[in-house]
From TrEMBL:
InterPro entries: AhpD, AhpD-like, AhpD_core, CMD-like. HAMAP family: AhpD. The gene is ahpD. It comes from Allokutzneria oryzae. This is Alkyl hydroperoxide reductase AhpD. Homotrimer. Pfam families: CMD (PF02627).
Amino acid sequence: MSLDALKAAMPDYAKDTKLNLGSVIGTSTLPKQQLWGTAVAVAVAARNAEVLRELVEAASEHVPAEVVTAAKAAASIMAMNNIYYRSKHLIGDEEYTNLPARLRMQVIGNPGVDKVDFELWCLAVSAVTGCGICLESHEKALRKAGLSRETVHEALRIAAVVHGAAVTLEAERALAQV
């Protein structure tokens, strides 16, 4: 229902994004909690109100509220961590790696859902924000926990399509205000 509303909002030039929303989310091989948690976490990270609203509504039809809350928590903590760890890496001075973060990150240890699912959502958000350090760290944790490369790949596909939809709708909103 709300996924259909999101697809209907796509302009003609974004036909591929519209079709990918249906195929990537509609036929995902991920369990529902991983699928909808990934979609919600990425929607938060992508910062488009319409995409976020529609995907939270769709997720709420398939998973319990605590999954939606944990997915939003994954996006929130990664918004902080991606900036912090990417910046330390980009500075290029190894001495920064020896300095403690001293940032509160307790939600990672107790996310309120399966920790593997939370890691997957953190990986997807890191893909959107472009933090290579976080991508590498979360991928290693997921693989160590037994998730396949195909599962990681599926989360990356969802991240790409949801972000593409958000960028498209944000562009259309900006152009409508001109």
